[in-house]
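As practice, study what follows.
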Amino acid sequence: IKLFQKKDKHSQQIWTIGDSFTNGGNVRATESYPAHLFKYIEQSGLNYSILNLGKCEDPTWNTYQRLKANLRLAQENSSLPRVVIIMVGSADPFYYIYGEKRPGNRKEQTTKININPIPWYQEYKVYKAYRHIKLELERLLINYNSPEEKTFLQLSHLYNKIKEDLKAQKVDWPKYKKSAQEILFSYKDLLDGDINEFEFADKMRFIYNVIIIPQVRYYSTNLKYDKATKLLLDFIHLAPEYFWNDKRSHPSTLDTFFQITKFQSHYTNNAIRKHFLASTQKNKSLRTSKLFKKSLNFLDMNKEIESTILTKRKEAWKKIIQLSQKYKFELIIQNYPSDFSLVNQTVETIAKNSNLKFIDQHKIFQKLIAKHSKQALFADDNHLRTFGHELMARNIFMYLKESQLLEQTSE
């Protein structure tokens, strides 16, 4: 918890609550969007304090519980917020990955409002702590034109070249192998064995092991799970006879796919299912393979989980809206700047159906990405850099001004 405030007992409060996008996640609390929002408001001469109640990996229903608990405390101290800004939902699937009794999912959680923030590592899982340190080092040590980035861009270009040559039936496998050897000279640990061991008897296996897997491992190591998923889906369309063949495809191939997609957020289960079906459209006999059936069964199971999560998410939002009515604060909800398609759609629908104040951060950021590039705004597939947090805060500040939700208070 972090409180940004003027030394003035008359200041009104704006609360921000949600998951790592509010907490800061991979940036410091002082670089989060609530901190930037405070700076915008302070520079405008308005007298408001900003309370950051973000908590990493917090699901929607737990955000509701924390908001309710803190409102009770605030009411006792006569310090209720004028505005509450919420962005939550992306961490809801973690509820099923880690289980209902994972830390932070208690039925009732009371958090004292405290100006002094607790140490950052106390709110992080080991994975979150690792990501925080890794991305901070990356920010300091690696630029976007690094040799590492260029290497895997070359491998991506080689993959596209191979696909073009396959269509034109002008393949040169020894040339591809030589190119891959040169590109991956410093990254041999990303291969399963020596590149010379991969022969061309099964050309799609060569592409998968030498061209695809090193890229997937590079992307996933750098937390770019959306990119890794997109690449794997592209390969499935290129080589369905390999990927879905029980005899040719290694069992780990499917495991790799679902391990990667577990952490991505761009493709829904339904979208992945459509890709699977489309890949076998020209050869529907592939749908009888054990690998294909296993994949669909896994997606069906995930679909049930998605449905349960959606129900719990809607119930939590209903209760959050009731809190806004009970404690008489202005409720503003936002969708994510990232491509969290399912949760973004849900939040937008809830805002529309309940006539709530809504900031479409995703739509705004699509324009900002076109202007600044995604790499300038995002640290990985989904999480924002400091610049991204600053822009998100600016969007909120402009909305507050245009909606006349900021009023001058006595200093």
Remarks:
- The chain has a mean pLDDT of 82.
- The chain has two domains: 2-141+309-402, 147-288.
- The radius of gyration is 24 Å.
